[in-house]
What does this fold into?
Amino acid sequence: MECVGLCEFVTSLGVSDMGLALFLGYLIGVLLVSGVPLVTVIFLIWIERKIAARIQDRIGPNRVGPFGLLQTVADLLKLLAKEDITPAAADRLLYNAAPIVSFASVVLIWAVIPIAPGFVGVDLDIGALYFVAVASLGTLAIMTAGWASNNKYALLGAFRVVALLVSYEIPLVFALVIPVMLAGSMSMVDIINAQSHMWFIFMAPVAMLMFAISSQAETGRAPFDLIEAESELIAGFNIEYSGMKFGMFFAAEFLHVFTNGILIAVLFMGGYLGLFYQFPLLGFLWLGLKGGLVYFVFLWVRNTVPRMRIDQVMRFNWFFLVPVSILNVILTALVLKLLQVWGIAPVNLAESSLLGVLPMTVILLLKDILMILFILGRISQEGRRARLDAERAHEQLLTAAAGD
Amino acid sequence: MDVLNQWAFVGVFLLLAPIFPALPIGAATLLRPKKPNVLKSQTYECGVETVGDTWVQFRVQYYIYGLVFLVFDVEMVLLFPWAVAYNQLDMFAFGAGFLFIFLLADALIYAWKKDVLVWK
It folds into this structure.
C-alpha cells in the first residue's frame, strides 16, 4: 500500500483539496492496515482456545457454528450484554481509559509491520524503535488500570506486573539491536530485505531466543503469567473490570501474542519473503505462515510449563537474560566487525548473494553455539554447587538434631 | 514519501487506534443493563469491606527496578544509532560504542553487587 497511490485514488474520486485528499488517503490506509489485526483477533481467540484444549486433551469450543468458529461472536455478544460495574471508589477517567490504551497500543504496532511487499502502513526509518516505544504503552495501561481501580489487590498486581514487564523489556530491546546491527537499518522493510539470502535466525539464534522469551513475558503468558496469579492476587490488575472493558484487556493480550509472533517472523525469519521463489502478492501468506508457527510455539509453551514464582522470574531475568543479552551484543558486534574487516562478511546483505552470506552465517552460528555451550556449562556448575550446598546444610541440620 | 508525511500517517493512526477498542465499549453501554447499587459498586476484596486507603506507600524495591530499567532504557536509545551506523563505523567510533556497552554492564554489575536485584 503506497500512500501516494491512495492519495491519487482519493483525488480521482473528485476530492480537489490536496490536504483533505492526503488525510482521506491516510484514513483509508490506516483502516486497511489495522483491519488485519482487528479481523485476525476474532479468529485468534478461537485458535487459542482450540489449541489449548487439544494440548489439555479436551475438544474445545465446537457448538457454535462449524467447528465452533462462531464461538468468539457468541462471546462478544455475551460481553456486550453484560453489566459493566464501575466501583464507586475508582478514578473514573483513568479506569475507563486503561482498556482502550491497552488495546490501542497493540494495534499501533501494526503501523510499521510490512504485511506484504509494498503493503506496509508506514516504513518508518526508526521502525524498530517505534515498536519499542508503542509496546511500552501497554505497561502504562496496566499501571493505570491497577491504580485507577482503587483496589489493593489490583494495585499490588499492577506493581508486580510493571516490575516484571519493565525488567523483561531490557533483554527484548537488546535482542532487537542484533537484527538492526546486521541489517544496518531500523526500518522493518530494510530488515526484511537484508534477509533475502539468509534469515537472521541462522545468524543470531540466541538473539531470537532472547526476543521470544522476553515477548512471552511481555504478554504475561506462562511461565511468566504472574499478571493473573489467581491464587495470590485474585486476578491482578483487572480484578475490578467487567463486561466489555474486561474483554478488551483479553483481546489485547491475544492480539499481542500474535503480534509478537509476526514480529519475530519479520525480524528473524524474513517476514513476507518466500523460501525460494515468491509471487509478490502472496507475501502475506508467508508472513502468516511464519508468524503462525511462532505463535503456535508460544501457545505450546504457555500450555505446557507451570507458573514460576515472582522471585524466580526476576532472578531469571536479571541474572540470566540481561547478562547473556549484553554478552550477545558485544560478541556479535566484535565478530561481525572482524569479519567485515577481513572481507568475509558483505557490508550490504541485501545486495549480496547466498554464497556471499554463507561464510558469515556459519561463523556467527558457530559463535552462538559456543556461547550457548559455555552458558549451559556455567549453569550446570552453578546448579551442582547449589545442590552440594543444600546437601551440606541438610547434613548439618541432621547432625545438630542427633546431638540434641 | 517524505519524513513529515510518514509521521502524519502515524498521527492519523494514533488518532484512530483508540476508536477501535472504544467502539465495542461504547456499543456495550447501549445494550447492557445498568443497575448499580451501593453494595455492587463497592471495592471487591474477598467480600470484606476494604480497610483504609488503597493508595499507600509501596515497597522501595519496585522503585529500584524502575531505576535500573531507566539506566538501561535510556542508554539503549543511544545504542540503536550505533547499531544502525555499524557498517560504516571506523574503529574509533566502534570502540566508543563498546565503552558505552561496558558502562551499561558496569551498572548491572554494580546493582548486582549491591544485591538490589534479588526479589525479597
Notes: Chain B touches chain A through 70 residues (CB under 8 Å). Residues 26 and 60 of chain B are 39 Å apart (CA to CA). The domain at 3-113 of chain B is CATH 1.20.58.1610 (Methane Monooxygenase Hydroxylase; Chain G, domain 1). Chain B has a mean pLDDT of 82.
